[in-house]
Task: inverse folding
C-alpha cells in the first residue's frame, strides 16, 4: 500500500500525455494523496489507461447497442463488450494492487 502524503498540494510526476482529461485528474489526485514509488506509478498508469479503454468501449456500445448483426444477419454480442469487461478487470486489479479504493463512478 502506498504511503500517505502530508501535503495536499500536487508535487508528483506529470500524468502520461495519452490519458484522458479525467484520468489525468485522477492521476494528480492519487499522487497528491499518496507517495507512489516508480513501480506503483506504472501500475497506476496501466490502471488509468485501462479505465480509458473501458470508457471508450462503453461509449461505443451505448451508441451501437449491446447486440450487433454478424455477416449472416444473426444477432451477437457487440465485440467491444469483451474489451470493456477486460479493461474494467485490469483497472480494478491495478487499484487493488495499489490498495486504493475504486472511485464510485467507475
Result:
Amino acid at each position: 500500500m502506498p504511503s500517505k502524503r502530508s501535503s495536499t498540494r500536487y508535487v508528483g510526476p506529470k500524468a502520461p500525455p495519452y490519458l484522458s482529461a479525467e484520468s489525468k485528474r485522477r492521476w494528480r489526485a492519487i499522487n497528491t494523496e499518496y507517495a507512489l514509488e516508480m513501480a506503483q506509478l506504472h501500475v497506476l498508469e496501466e490502471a488509468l489507461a485501462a479505465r480509458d479503454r473501458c470508457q471508450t468501449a462503453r461509449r461505443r456500445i451505448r451508441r451501437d447497442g449491446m447486440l450487433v448483426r454478424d455477416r449472416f444477419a444473426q444477432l451477437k454480442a457487440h465485440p467491444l463488450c469483451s474489451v470493456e469487461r477486460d479493461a474494467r478487470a485490469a483497472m480494478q486489479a491495478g487499484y487493488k494492487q495499489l490498495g486504493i479504493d475504486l472511485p464510485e463512478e467507475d
